[in-house]
Amino acid sequence: LDYDASIGWHDARVVPYQPITLDPAAKVFHYGQTVFEGLKAYLTADGPIRLFRPRKNFERLNRSNERLSIPHLDEELALEALKLLILTDREWIPSAEGTSLYIRPFIIATEAALGVNPSTQYKFMIIMSPVGSYYAEGIHPVKIFVESEYVRAVKGGVGNAKTAGNYAAGLKAQENATKQGSSQVLWLDGVHRKYIEEVGSMNVFFNINGTIVTPALNGSILDGITRDSIIQLLKHWNIPVEERALSIDEIVEAHGNGSLVEAFGTGTAAVISPIGELLWLGHKLSINNGETGELSAKLYDNLTGIQKGTVEDPFGWILTLDDR
Ligand code: PMP
Q1: Ligand 1 centre and the CA of 203: distance in Å?
Q2: Is residue 222 within 6 Å of ligand 1 at its C-beta?
Q3: Which of these CATH numbers, 3.50.50.60, 1.10.10.10, 3.20.10.10, 3.40.50.12780, describes 142-308?
Q4: What residues bear N6-(pyridoxal phosphate)lysine in this entry (predicted)?
Q5: Does domain 2-131 bear CATH number 3.30.470.10?
Q6: Is the N end or the C end of the chain the one with fewer CB atoms within 10 Å?
């Protein structure tokens, strides 16, 4: 779809994957006026195509739009566009165990003008790619670098929008973390530099003596759809869950006195990513002996089961595209 201030969103079309042409002065290149989403479609050999909570993605896209001064996009129209695109070529969706179709909807500001104000023209596009199993060699815990120098987002900034600038702000820290043998960065808040926010592309949960604690949505972290699903699952199982401010000091203390039972990240790509070690100011804090925790494994099995259709979906999270 294209957007022009005089006619709104228009001209929905499906075209073969190909390079696009943009003016070098397009605002997206200079001012980062762009938002995106990430979701997955699943297929089992004998079932319909399954989308996991797609409306949540388009609702979040519009919240990001609002923050970035990008015009609202009708969520049902976006969903129709997605269905049409998927059904255009369903051979793209792999059905083997653990595989899925990754879907990336995004909007870019295309107006060619160097003034720093919102664009009057945009493009909404959806690209897709089959992806293999995230854990081809079995689910394994990751090492996470707790960032003490750089900040990703502050309250009032764009941290709770899914926009390019947040990821650009994180690249340097990610590079440093990789050099130190960690796979992702754990961000702390930008004001006190002690409250836990989120991991590079995941929300984060800690099991402290059987209570599952995750940072509250405070305006600077992403409102993860996996995060919301995990909270609902935990409540459904009557496992105590708290959304609140959580400092790195509390985690270090819980680690010290043995009450930090397990930790995991949540996101569309990995679903659940157990955390085996935190690297904080040069200290290595090993969690659950670097092994996958019991709850992480149970959550992973249930959520991926709901997505694939092997576990009942009591929440109505799956939208099926039955074209047969
Ligand atoms: N935080 C950030 C910064 C992310 O990029 C992602 C991935 N979208 C998440 C959290 C997890 O969100 P979701 O569960 O919706 O994929």
Answers
A1: 6
A2: yes
A3: 3.20.10.10
A4: 162
A5: yes
A6: C
pLDDT band of 113, cuts 50, 70, 90:
very high
pLDDT in tens, 174-188: 999 999 999 999 999
ipTM confidence score:
0.99
DSSP SS3 for 215: strand
* Span from the CA of 15 to the centroid of ligand 1 (angstroms): 28
- 223 CA distance to ligand 1 centroid (A)? 7
Please tell me if the CB atom of residue 267 comes closer than 6 angstroms to any atom of ligand 1: yes
Ligand 1 atom with the shortest distance to the CA of 57: 15
Locate 150 and state its tokens. Answer: 């750089």
Residue closest via CA to ligand 1's atom 7 equals: 201
Angle between helices 54-67 and 225-236 (to 10 degrees): 130
Q: How far apart are CA 246 and CA 153, in angstroms?
A: 16
C-alpha atoms less than 13 angstroms from C-alpha of 177 in its C-beta half-sphere: 26
CATH 3.20.10.10 in the chain: give the residue spans.
Answer: 142-308
Asked if 143 and 279 touch (Cβ cutoff 8 Å), the reply is yes
CB 257 within 8 A of CB 223: no
Q: What beta strand segments (E) does 25-99 contain?
A: 34-36, 39-42, 49-52
